[in-house]
């Protein structure tokens, strides 16, 4: 990705407002983040009203800010359809919902892939996105949950991939298996979600018993991240050691960093050191963590080599990552 690309560094940090029943509250939260310098937002064609909420937000932002910074929306094309009609229909829908003439970036997720890359149907769908890009309806293209084998197939087929959205955290280090190395070679950035594992990697889980923690698995996403934790370790004491280490690292910094901020800063440094850089996707329901998130945006929550080594010593006590991204979810592992 060029220096003018959509996720040129971790300072281009993305914020995602989860689908919220209160549309006005969602827009107000987006406006609060934008006023503090967050101008890039993640969404998808399959996220219910998410795109249209962002469209409402964009109109409110432009109307209220005469010198407003331009907003960028990264949406998705999630499909198993390889034809032009579907690609055109979803593209038109996203343009209409967001109220823009061209989509800043489309992240491509295809449901039907093969672990060895032998199923190449998705490349036909990718060609439709390239056509839309050449027609000026898409600015940039990204993969979404693409493992190294299938990401390479897209690049080799001529698809201009600049980023890849994947899950990556202290509890799910599968991108380190193959993907980060390939992305470093190709200068493909990663936009990563699940960095705080649905809140498992936060101060609110420090000191909890396993039973107490399990009673807080009150969402599909949090149960998914619990599975990531179980793949790293089923030793609750070891997980608590990790949380205590993150807290200790955070307290050495000025201003002090939360457990979630340390987990986020760890991921950003890993992207820079092992890959080609990238950005965080932070899920928010309201502006309650805005101050904390702004430290990350401004690069004021970076970790030292000593911090990283202390965290690595704990990670090594659990299981090493197995398989590439989404291998487990696709039934390949």
Description of the molecule:
With about 325 residues, this protein is of the alpha/beta class. About 45% of the residues lie in helices and about 15% in strands. It has helices at about 25-35, 50-65, 85-100, 120-135, 150-155, 180-185, 210-215, 220-230, 235-250, 260-275, 290-295, 305-315, and strands at about 15, 40, 70-80, 105-110, 140-145, 160-165, 190-195, 280-285. Strands 1-8-7-6-5-4-3-2 form an eight-stranded parallel β-sheet. The longest helix has 16 residues, at about 235-250. The chain starts with 13 loop residues before the first strand and ends in an 18-residue tail after the last helix.
Biggest sheet, spatial arrangement of strands: 1-8-7-6-5-4-3-2
Helix-strand topology string: EHEHEHEHEHEHEHHHHEHH
Distance between the termini: 31 Å
The counted number of beta strands is 8
Helix content: 40-55%
Q: What does the average pLDDT come to?
A: 93
The helix-and-strand class reads alpha/beta
What composes the largest sheet? Answer: 8 strands, parallel
Shape annotation? globular
Low-confidence stretches: 8-12
What percentage of amino acids are in beta strands? 5-15%
Number of helices: 12
Gyration radius from CA atoms, angstroms: 19 Å
Features:
alpha/beta; globular; 8-stranded parallel beta sheet
SSE inventory with pairings:
Layout: E1 14-17, H1 23-35, E2 40-42, H2 50-64, E3 72-79, H3 84-98, E4 103-110, H4 121-134, E5 138-144, H5 148-156, E6 161-167, H6 179-186, E7 189-193, H7 210-214, H8 220-232, H9 236-251, H10 259-274, E8 278-284, H11 290-297, H12 305-315
Parallel strand pairs: 1-8, 2-3, 3-4, 4-5, 5-6, 6-7, 7-8
Helix pairs in contact: 1-2, 2-3, 3-4, 9-10, 9-12
